[in-house]
Design brief:
The protein is α+β, with helices and mostly antiparallel strands. It has helices spanning 31-43, 80-91, 107-115, 121-139, 182-189, 197-207, 217-227, 229-237, 241-255; strands at 3-4, 8-12, 17-23, 57-59, 62-68, 147-150, 159-161, 167-169, 176-179. The protein contains nine helices and nine strands. α2 runs parallel beside α6 and α4 (121-139) runs antiparallel to α7 (217-227). Keywords: Transferase.
Length: 267
C-alpha cells in the first residue's frame, strides 16, 4: 500500500500500475469522471497523472481505477514552482466537455458531522457553526481570477514527478467549477505543515500571482483548515489513535484561533 487516507492506493509493480480504491462512503466526486477528465486534460497538454484503463471497476462497496505508476526519487519532492505553473496552465483552459459540479464549500466535513457521533458536543457545535460562517463568507467573495475549472485539492502532496522532472497533478476526485483562487490558498495553508517562505515564493513565481493580496484569502485558508479534518474524524471513529491525537491537536489550535500552529500529516 502506498497511501491510505480518503482513498487507498496500491502499487501493482508487475503491471507498472497503481490501483486507487475509493470506498462508497467517501468517493470524493466521481472516480469515473476523474478518468475521463484526466484523459481530456492530457490532450490539452496539462501535466496530469494518466489513467491506464478508461473504465472504473465496481467491487462490492468500492470503485477501483487504475493509473500509470511514476517511480519517485527518494531525495526530493515535486517543486512548488512546477505546481504553480501547472495550475496556471489548468486555469487558462475553457470548461471541459464533461459536466463538473459547482463547488460546495466543506461538503465532506458537513457530511461527516451529520453522520458521526464521534466528536463531543462542544466540538461538534463549534465546527458546525464555523462551517456555516465560512460558507456565508464564501458566498460573498468576489473572485479576482474568475470562476472556472479547479482541481479542488491542489497542493504539492497531490503531485508527482513525471518524465524529465515535470510536475504532474494527480487526485482529481474533487474537480469542480469554482473561483480559481480556491486552488491557490491550499499551498499557503500548508505553512502549517512546514511549507517555507521560499516554497511559497516559488509557488507565486510559478503561478504569476499572489493570492495573499486578495481580500478573500483568509476565508479560503480557514476553509482549507477545516477541510483537512474530515479524514481524521473518519479515521478516529474507526479507532486510529494517531489520527485521533492529531485531530485533537488541530481542533484545539483552531478553537484557540492560532493560525501559526504546526500540524502533522498522519499517514
Amino acid at each position: 500500500m502506498l497511501r491510505a487516507h480518503s482513498n487507498s492506493v496500491y502499487l501493482l509493480p508487475h503491471e507498472h500500475a497503481v490501483a486507487r480504491i475509493s470506498h462508497h462512503e467517501h468517493r470524493g466526486l466521481r472516480a469515473r469522471a476523474s478518468v475521463t477528465l484526466t484523459r481530456w486534460l492530457a490532450d490539452q497538454h496539462i501535466p496530469v497523472t494518466e489513467p491506464l484503463v478508461d473504465e472504473a471497476v465496481e467491487v462490492e462497496d468500492a470503485t477501483v481505477t487504475f493509473w500509470r505508476h511514476y517511480p519517485q526519487p527518494q531525495d526530493s519532492r515535486p517543486s512548488f514552482v512546477g505546481l504553480g505553473e501547472a495550475l496556471r496552465a489548468l486555469h487558462s483552459l475553457p470548461r471541459p466537455p464533461i459536466s463538473l459540479p459547482t463547488y460546495t464549500p466543506l461538503l465532506g466535513l458537513t457530511t461527516e458531522l451529520q453522520r458521526s457521533d464521534y466528536l463531543d458536543i462542544a466540538d461538534h457545535r463549534w465546527l458546525s457553526d464555523r462551517v456555516e460562517q465560512l460558507r456565508s463568507a464564501y458566498a460573498e467573495l468576489n473572485s479576482a481570477l474568475g470562476v472556472g475549472m479547479v482541481h479542488g485539492d491542489a497542493y504539492v502532496g497531490n503531485t508527482l514527478r513525471g518524465p524529465g522532472g515535470t510536475v504532474l497533478l494527480g487526485d482529481w476526485d474533487e474537480a469542480a467549477i469554482a473561483p480559481r483562487e480556491l486552488d491557490l490558498a491550499n499551498t499557503f495553508q500548508g505553512a502549517r505543515f512546514g511549507n517555507s517562505r521560499a516554497d511559497l515564493d516559488e509557488f507565486v513565481r510559478g503561478y504569476g500571482w499572489d493570492v495573499r493580496e486578495w481580500d478573500g484569502f483568509a476565508v479560503l485558508r480557514e476553509m482549507r483548515d477545516l477541510h483537512t479534518l474530515s479524514g481524521y474524524i473518519r479515521r478516529s471513529r474507526r479507532g486510529d489513535q494517531r489520527a485521533e491525537r492529531e485531530l485533537c491537536h488541530r481542533l484545539d489550535s483552531l478553537r484557540r484561533g492560532d493560525p501559526g500552529a504546526t500540524w502533522h500529516a498522519v499517514t
